[in-house]
Write a structure and sequence with these properties.
There is one protein chain. It contains twelve helices and twelve strands. The longest helix has 21 residues. 38% of the residues lie in helices and 13% in strands. Bound molecules: pyridoxal-5'-phosphate.
């Protein structure tokens, strides 16, 4: 029985009626840009993430870009990011003419290792962007300590981690701003591209982001600065509001499946396969991905084995950011970020979506076990 990496059809059934009605209503009102769905969704996410403000935007990438633009980041500035993550975190820094400063990850969490943070700081550092990868919050108490000590703002990349928690606080509740993505494969996914920037409590950053989202315009046709067209569509906000009501139960389903895998696969040889671990106090991993590490150069063979048995899987991410061709000008060499490079060689994510039934979980676990026996 094939098991896909993700199957959104069951989720869509749950909200089909509400979204169909919402679409009829939108067509009747013919109001598609920055309407009540966007403003209500912004309030709902701000409440969810425990922030004062939220601004709906066109993607997670634009959420990151707008946060850095609001801080005035540009040529000559540096922004510290992990090298093992999705491209956009470095892309937005470079797009603004600033320099991404890469750091290595903690191999047990895949998140930024704060121990190298202090040595990465310089007088040019204008922001630190930790990523909460795969649904797990980064070591925010340590990162915030270092950032606050040096007066550098923190912009969280919570694109994979809406609802993740650690040390009693939500993803998005730490830095001065945070980015969220509603790309369809996220735990809360739109019917296309969508994103959101939260602002912890700073009124002027909130006003700036709202203005930058509409070409720096305020009032209409008066442009104080050059912004972007970064608006969240009313249609996507309507879809996201319908789905947000189910997000907690979807998180619970993912956690249930992950817990089941961790128990069922615990007997496998840790020298050959490493399961994800979660040790953060007062925390919650929301498993946007359930990511294994396959040791001894066996990952490709493992993936081929899963593929032969119809088990969906993917590698997030096969190439570190410092090794991307577009960043060759930064002159980083192989071996400089050893944990990240090793993760890029070993990781593979397997199905963990909430609607998986017991038979599907058993099937995935059986196929994994059969590779190691
Ligand atoms: C960690 C991370 N950061 C940023 C992004 C960018 O989000 P989007 O694809 O919505 O632009 C993503 C989504 O793919 C992501 O996973």
């Amino acid at each position: 029985m094939p098991v896909p990496l993700l199957d959104l059809r069951a989720q869509n059934e749950l909200v089909r009626h509400e979204i169909a009605e919402g679409l009829q209503d939108l067509m009747n009102r013919s109001s598609f840009i920055l309407g009540s769905h966007v403003s209500e969704f912004e309030k709902e996410v701000a409440a969810y993430a425990h922030t004062k403000y939220a601004v709906g935007v066109s993607s997670g990438t634009d959420a990151q870009l707008l946060a850095l633009m609001a801080l005035g980041i540009g040529p000559g500035d540096e922004v510290i990011i992990p090298t093992f993550t999705f491209f956009s975190t470095a892309g937005v820094v470079a797009r603004l003419g600033a320099t991404p400063i890469f750091t290595d990850i903690d191999p047990s969490t895949f998140n930024m290792d704060p121990s190298s943070l202090s040595s990465s700081l310089s007088p040019k550092t204008k922001a630190i962007m930790p990523v909460h990868l795969f649904g797990q919050i980064a070591d925010m108490p340590t990162i915030m300590n270092i950032a606050n000590g040096s007066g550098v703002p923190v912009v969280e990349d919570a694109c994979q981690s809406m609802g993740a928690r650690g040390w009693g606080r939500e993803a998005g509740e730490w830095g001065s701003m945070s980015s969220f993505s509603f790309y369809p494969t996220k735990n809360l996914g739109a019917f296309g591209d969508a994103g959101l920037t939260t602002i912890l409590d700073d009124d002027s950053l909130f006003k700036k982001i709202k203005r930058l989202r509409v070409h720096g315009m305020e009032p209409v046709y008066v442009h104080h600065e050059v912004g972007i067209n970064g608006r969240l569509d009313e249609f996507q906000a309507m879809v996201l509001r319908a789905k947000l009501k189910h997000l907690e139960s979807w998180h619970e389903g993912r956690i249930r499946n992950a817990t089941w895998y961790l128990d069922r696969l615990a007997h496998l040889d840790a020298d050959r396969i490493e399961l994800p671990s979660f040790k953060i106090p007062q925390g919650r991993h929301i498993y946007n991905q359930f990511t294994l590490k396959i040791k001894n150069g066996q990952r490709d063979a493992f993936r081929a084995h899963l593929g032969t048995h119809g088990i969906g899987n993917a590698v997030y991410y096969p190439i570190c950011l410092h090794e991307q061709p577009c960043f060759a000008y930064l002159g980083k060499t192989q071996g400089q970020f050893a944990h990240s490079e090793q993760a890029a060689r070993e990781v593979v994510s397997i199905p963990v979506y909430p609607e998986m039934n017991h038979q599907q979980l058993e099937e995935v676990a059986d196929v994994i076990e059969s590779f190691f026996h």
